[in-house]
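Researcher: Please predict.
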Amino acid sequence: MGIARTLLIVVAIFVALIIIKRLLTGRPQTPPAQAQAPKLVQCAHCGVHVNEQQALRSGDHYYCSADHQQRGKTN
C-alpha cells in the first residue's frame, strides 16, 4: 500500500502544478480574428482590381495609377 499511496501523492502534486500553472498564465486567449481579405476595387480606366488602400480615388471612382486617374474613365 505504500507504493500506491506514494503514486497517488505524486499524481496529486502533478495535477496541482498543472492547475497552478494555468491559473498563473491565465486562460488561453482566443486566436485573433483572421485577417480580413483586402477589399478590392476596380480601376475605372482599365478595369484592373486593386487593393482599396492602394488605389487612387477620385470622387466615386478608383484608379490603379496616377496616369489612369488623369486620363479618367474612357468607356
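Model: The first helix runs from residue 2 to 25.
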